[in-house]
Each structure stands twice: as C-alpha cells, then as structure tokens.
Design brief:
Elements (H helix, E strand, L loop, with lengths): L7 E5 L11 H12 L8 E5 H7 L3 E3 L7 H10 L3 H9 L1 E7 L4 E5 L4 E3 L13 E3 L5 H16 L4 E10 L2 E12 L5 E2 L15 E2 L1 H13 L8 E5 L29
Parallel strand pairs: 2-8
Antiparallel strand pairs: 1-12, 2-12, 3-7, 4-5, 5-6, 8-9, 10-11
Length: 259
Amino acid sequence: MRGSKLIEITPLDQLPLLNQGDDLAGLIVKRARKMGAGIRNRDVLVVGQKAISKTEGRVVDIRHVKPSARALTIAKRTGKKPEFVELVLRDSQRVVRADKEALIVTTRTGATCLNGGVDKSNVKGDTKYALLPQDPDASARSLVKRVKLLTGKNVGVVVCDTRSRPFRRGQVEECIGVAGMSPLVDYRGQKDLFGYRLRFKNVALADELASAAELVMGQGRERAPAAIIRGLERVKFQNRASSKRLAISPSEDLFRGTL
C-alpha cells in the first residue's frame, strides 16, 4: 500500500497445461477476462519462466542428449547425470562451482545460478527437463506486444525464476527477463525523511515484483503460472528495458573473494 492506494496481486490460475506453440499471452488475456480482472494500462504481468520455456519448446528429453567429454568429467565430480550436466553446459559461459554440493554456472545471458536454471519441477515425464528461455528479455517483449495487440493496453512484463541466494536460507523469485518497464527504481540523489541525500539506494523493483507475485502463484500444484500486479505507482513504464541492468560486473561485486 502507498498512501491510501491498494496494490492488487491477482493469480491467473486454471490455465491449461502448456505446450510448445501455445499462445501464452492469449491464454493470460482470456483467463483475466473470465476472472473479471481484465487487463488494464499500467498492469504488470509476472510470468513464470517455466510457462515461457514450455511454449517456446525449451523442454528437452535427456535420453536424446549426448554428453561431451567435459560433461562426463563434471558429472563424475558432481554425481549428476552426464546428460543433465551437458544440458547445463550448453547454455553456460562459465562454470563457477562443480562439486558434490552444487553445480553453479553463469549462463550465456549473464545469470549466475544453480544448474544453469535447468529444472525438472512441473515438467511432465521422468526424463524431461525445462531450460531457461534463450532470451528472457525477448520473451518478455513478445508478451508485451501480443497483449497490446489483443487488448490495446500497455503493460509491463516480468519473467521470473526461483533462485537461491548467498548467505540466505530458502529461495525467492527473481526477474530474469523484463519488458515495458524499468527493472530499477533509482533513489540516489533524492532526500530521505530527515533530509539526508541517498547515495546507494537503487531498488531492484522487478525482483520485488517477482517475489510478490510468487505469494499467489506458488511453486507446486497451484497451476498459476502468471499474476497481475495492479496499482503500483513506482513502476516506470518505458519501451526500452533490459534485465541485464540487474546484473553487476565482477569489479562491482562486493562479495568477490568471499564465497
């Protein structure tokens, strides 16, 4: 809540099981209309990565994957299936850690995460795994354009994924793709309640929206792969947006050398 204005977070549940080629934006718009919420200007749609990966054909059966020599080596080190490791390596630019406890990589899009985002949850079939979208920002842009075509409304889209964090137990949702809105709210240079000029406050709003939406989307059997966030005035809607603004370079990393 900001002042007397309520922020609404509405889960878009009961969507059908998704497959490659499905019109995800169309299904979201249809469900929103059926629920009576509809789509309005300045809505933010938070969409789970898995839903996008399924509709974009980013689901792979590891029985059809031939592991490379490097994947075989890392598989022995980690205890993971060679075919699974191969999937992780294909979309990775750097292996950060590979041992019995964790396989952490930096993906080609610049995200550093466990298993390169390759995931089994909510994917039908014992041997099938979902990969991250090849370009989550492009996926978000496509949804923005399609929603605009179907409804005439200008919205923001945040593509989210579940991530672990250093020094913190449990996982939270983070933004891995964004379109139609700035992922940050920069308070630097503004004054606080007592006139102190803020120097470092640059809020990752897209991450906050992703985590807020997870409260109603869930992680398991909820079948709510998307949510509408409505009424948040801090969102800066704009045509140019990139989730890469949320990533930092190694030279900026305050935790470098500590992990």
